[in-house]
Amino acid sequence: MVWSFSAGRSFDRCPRRWFFRSVVGHHAAKDPARREAYLLSKLDSLWSWRGRLVDDVIANHVVPTLTVGRDPDLAPLLAVARESHEAHLAFASAHRLREAAMRPSQHPDFLALLEVERGAPPSDADLAKAWGDVETALTNLLAMHALLERLKGAALLLPQRALTYKRTLAGGEPVTVRAVPDLLAFFNDAPPLIVDWKVHTHAATDYREQLAGYALALVRSDGQWGLPNLRRLTPTDVDLIEVQLLKDELRSYTLTDEDFRNIDVDRGESAMRMQALLKDRSKGDRDPYTVPTTTDLRTCEGCNFRALCWDGLAGPRYGVT
Ligand code: SF4
């Protein structure tokens, strides 16, 4: 089983939602329900996608420029973002998700919007707002001169690098923990820095726990290909910054050994709750309608899997355990 921060959060919102995404959905499944769960797992809301677009532009265009010690220019950055924005929206508007034998990984401009799938495509005002957020996020980023200077001085910048490590749960089951920080920065004369870009209008939640998990994953990934020597590094050494790109705000986190221990215990407990749903069953064999659901049906409103999960308009279907 693979545990990640986003899987843990999805499970906490609704175990069945996690189960549809992580266990039932399979791209090559012969069972139409499993193939359908896979396709539904690819749906994004307009608001979550515009954040991913910003992440991709930073990873593919801002970081390479910083790596060679140059300042990125705003105009060309906005031009590539706009081109990508339009290509993805054209893909989503044509609802190409439903083309026969669709394989998302073969389409660089793949986008499937939940709003289109439900027959209520985003309004022009929403589309304009989403693009405005992309512009604001990138404009604010390029004005964060102190952060950009710091990154330009890094010996190594790794955007969206997957970190994985194995741990054993209290019951003896192995689990793989996976984390993908937005940016890892390594310096010759300073501890590593982890940066997480956020494109949130309200930015009310803090991501301290997510960043702490990245620091744990980095320390435990010592020895993996492409990473510098981390043998003497401890989680408290790692600098953690959350960058709220719409709020134009940097949040630095300082955590103690006890914080890290508590977070590690919480993660183990989260993984055990997931594992309990899989126990004694082959992956994918459990009837998803026997998996517990959220008790707050407002959660279902934005859920990708509602069409599979619900019994018409009545609410979630339940099978016999
Ligand atoms: S529709 Fe509701 S109950 Fe069903 S998986 Fe989604 S969030 Fe859970």
Features:
single chain, 321 residues, alpha/beta, 2 domains, 5-stranded mixed β-sheet, 3-stranded mixed β-sheet, globular, binds iron/sulfur cluster, PDDEXK-like_dom_sf, PDDEXK_AddAB-type, PD-(D/E)XK endonuclease-like domain-containing protein
Number of H/I helices: 11
Spell the H/E element sequence.
EHHHEHHEHHHEEEEEHEEHH
Share of helix, binned: 40-55%
Mean pLDDT: 94
Counted beta strands: 10
What Rg, in angstroms, do the CA atoms define? Answer: 21 Å
Sketch the major β-sheet.
Answer: 5 strands, mixed
Q: Output the strand order for the largest sheet.
A: 4-7-8-9-10
Low-confidence stretches: none
Percent of sequence in beta strands: 5-15%
Which molecules are bound besides the chains? iron/sulfur cluster
Separation of the first and last Cα atoms: 22 Å
Shape descriptor: globular
How many domain units?
A: 2
Structural class: alpha/beta
Topology:
Elements: E1 2-3, H1 5-13, H2 15-24, H3 32-41, E2 43-44, H4 46-67, H5 74-93, E3 112-113, H6 114-117, H7 124-142, H8 145-152, E4 156-159, E5 163-168, E6 174-179, E7 183-186, E8 193-198, H9 208-220, E9 239-244, E10 249-253, H10 257-278, H11 306-309
Parallel strand pairs: 1-6, 2-3, 8-9
Antiparallel strand pairs: 4-7, 5-6, 7-8, 9-10
Helix pairs in contact: 1-2, 1-10, 4-5, 4-7, 5-7, 9-10
Organism: uncultured Truepera sp
InterPro entries: PDDEXK-like_dom_sf, PDDEXK_AddAB-type
Protein name: PD-(D/E)XK endonuclease-like domain-containing protein
